[in-house]
Specification:
The chain has 649 residues and is mainly beta. It contains seven helices and 42 strands. Strand 41 and strand 42 form a beta hairpin.
């Protein structure tokens, strides 16, 4: 059933490719309902003195032009520019509000153009780099990819540039052509983050040259937008390593789930990272410290990766895990770090993993140490399993997908989240996080309203990656149509249970929500966590009458399980009965002998709905609760019994 082989490939996190099939134009997300906003973004202070710089307050610093044989699209420079197309993304977070913008979406219109856009932004005068052999270009950027474009930095020493770049053009640093985002360009919905500081080493072409011009060159067909801010040409430092990323993956596959039930952790969590040497000098003693803090920010574990957990690339450019990499890290090279850490003492709680990279030459307190850290937040739970970390990330990037996101997908759109099951369990149902969960933060206009309907399904992963939609043949279990109520919208989520828990073995499954809005009269939107880059298959969508596409993010469809560690603390307890089951809302607890007991009743995600004390036979009226699965725990110092009950209406 697990069609996607979950090989651990750290390289994919640095040069990320979602391997998505060619997306059609009708799959472009409608940002009128689902625009993306990076939450709590900030602009970092410059760590280097600039040979030349521009913050776009002076438009005369730049020359704007395009290939007139291809298009008439131009860059724009100004204050507080905003995308004006049918599918706008947010503007770049800027320190002074001035920046440059290329709005391909506005140029393409609602349905998209057919022209191969070729538009550029060039420094108006040359920059003297004759005193510098090592030169970099540093700039802030915000770019979101669609499916057919590339972003280039082009460098010239005589004022002439190629004018025929296209999405098929390959990078050629020896000719001054640098592709800026090979990791994400052409991958639908992938983005840099807002803002993202990009640095490009142009020493090979510009070092020691007395005249240097740079150009930002966009080429593509009907993309989203590309923003540029705070351009700085500066000398490359001698000692500057950067921590490219930190990864927390409970199953060692680079799938970074926000919440994982204890039973699925299996006693160990995998941590990985990469360190890139951006300096000119080789770095010695390169290592990463890892600190894991609990929900109260107390240390849970601290360790160093060390040389035995350090790896380089083989001759084919893949991470070589067969032998550790020892010795200095040369300039423009990468070391990868990977190890498993015991998690047997980590109970249900929120955790923060802090990665700090250092070398003998670039240590804490150094001039370029600001890019040596990374943080990942995650939670170990009792029975809630989610790829998203919504409500937990301190710095989140949030979008939404729903019945108003795609052309001709207002009824029957299926959004799916991928779940790797390492320990057999039962799937009770799902908690689906609606966009109203984040209204007033990421979204100021309503999307989800009451009256729409959702069908929850558990699906076979092997039948869904192909372009031919398998339909009902992929369904393992599904519910009837469940209506979204006003309370669901207010709460920001809807809980949907299968008629009875579904037993699942060690494998991978898609948990899907099929959305019905009655022709957009009652739209439903599900939050999409875009904070952490994910494998392409971790979230998928099916557009009715079309095919399945990668979403590439972490959709807010959370699996609720009945893992052994919380369902049956004691399978057989004599002298204690909980009945009837199923129930119409009245639950009886019958005791053979009077004693003092604690009674706690929780819903499927652990929310306590009853917390009481009893000393004799007692009945509880739960008719006010929604129909679904609940857990009744009766305990004292001698016994503890947890029983799963179903309330029917």
């Amino acid at each position: 059933m697990k069609q996607i082989t979950t090989l651990f490939c750290v390289l994919a996190m640095l040069s990320f490719s979602f391997a998505q099939s060619s997306a059609k134009k009708q799959a472009k997300r409608s940002a009128m309902q689902g625009s993306i906003k990076a939450i709590n973004s900030s602009v970092e202070n410059r760590s280097a003195d600039c040979i030349w710089e521009s913050d776009f307050t002076n438009v005369q610093d730049w020359v704007i032009d395009h290939d007139s044989s291809d298009c008439s699209l131009d860059w724009e420079i100004g204050e507080n520019l905003a995308c004006e197309g049918f599918y706008p993304i947010e503007s770049i977070v800027s320190s002074d509000g001035f920046y440059a913008m290329l709005d391909s979406d506005e140029y393409g219109g609602e349905e998209g153009g057919t022209e191969t856009e070729d538009s550029w932004l060039t420094t108006a005068t040359s920059i003297d780099c004759s005193q510098y052999t090592d030169v970099i270009v540093e700039f802030d950027t915000w770019y979101q990819s669609y499916n057919s474009e590339k972003c280039f930095l082009v460098v010239s020493t005589d004022g002439t540039f190629p004018t025929d770049l296209s999405p098929t053009t390959e990078a050629d640093p020896s000719q001054g052509i640098y592709e800026l985002f090979p990791d994400i360009s052409g991958t639908v919905q992938a983005n840099t983050g807002n803002p993202f500081t990009k640095r490009v080493n142009i020493s090979e072409y510009a070092g020691g040259e007395s005249q240097v011009w740079i150009r930002f060159n966009w080429t593509g067909t009907w993309g989203y937008a590309w923003f540029i801010d705070r351009v700085c040409i500066t000398q490359q430092p001698a000692n500057d390593i950067e921590l490219s990323y930190g990864v927390v993956s409970h199953n060692g596959t680079n799938e970074e789930y926000g919440r994982v039930p204890t039973a699925q952790v299996n006693g160990e969590i995998n941590y990985s990272a990469a360190v890139f040497n951006f300096g000119t000098d080789a770095q010695t003693g390169v290592d990463i410290s890892l600190d894991i803090l609990d929900g109260q920010m107390y240390p849970e574990a601290s360790t160093m990766f060390g040389p035995d957990n350090t790896f380089g690339l083989d001759a084919d450019g893949f991470v070589d895990f067969t032998q550790p990499a020892y010795g200095p890290l040369e300039g423009d090279d990468i070391y990868y770090f990977d190890m498993g850490v015991d998690a047997s003492t980590m109970g249900p709680d929120k955790y923060t993993a802090m990665f700090i990279a250092s070398s003998d030459e670039d240590m804490d307190g150094g001039e370029f140490f600001s890019d040596n850290t990374a943080t990942r937040e995650f939670e170990i739970t009792t029975n809630e399993y989610s790829s998203d970390g919504l409500g937990m990330h301190s710095l989140a990037s949030v979008g939404r997908i729903g019945s108003g996101s795609f052309t001709d997908a207002e009824d029957g759109l299926i959004v799916m989240g991928y779940y790797d099951i390492s320990t057999p369990t039962e799937v009770v149902g799902a908690r689906i996080i609606l966009d109203s969960f984040d209204w007033g933060n990421s979204f100021t206009t309503p999307g989800t309203v009451e009256g729409g309907e959702i069908v929850l399904s558990l699906r076979d992963t092997t039948l869904i990656s192909s372009e031919t939609w398998p339909g009902a043949s992929s369904v393992i279990a599904e519910t009837d149509f469940i209506m979204v109520t006003a309370d669901d919208v207010t709460n920001g989520y809807i809980d949907i249970n299968f008629d009875s828990p579904v037993s699942v073995g060690t494998d991978a499954y898609f948990l899907g929500a099929e959305l019905w809005s009655n022709g957009n009269e009652a739209d439903i939107f599900i939050l999409d966590d875009e904070t952490i880059p994910q494998p392409f298959y971790l979230s998928m969508i099916y557009i009715p009458g079309d095919q399945a596409y990668s979403n590439g993010n972490s959709i807010g469809i959370r699996m609720i399980t009945t893992d052994e560690n919380i369902v049956s603390l004691e399978e057989s307890v004599t002298g204690l009965s909980i009945y009837p089951n199923p129930s119409n809302g009245i639950i009886n607890i019958e005791l053979d002998k009077n004693n003092n007991y604690s009674v706690q009743i929780t819903d499927i995600v652990g929310k306590v709905v009853i917390d009481d004390k009893i000393s004799s036979n007692t009945s509880f009226d739960l008719k006010h609760l929604d129909a679904g699965v609940y857990f009744v725990n009766v305990s004292n110092n001698e016994i503890s019994k947890t029983e799963k009950i179903v309330i029917e209406k």
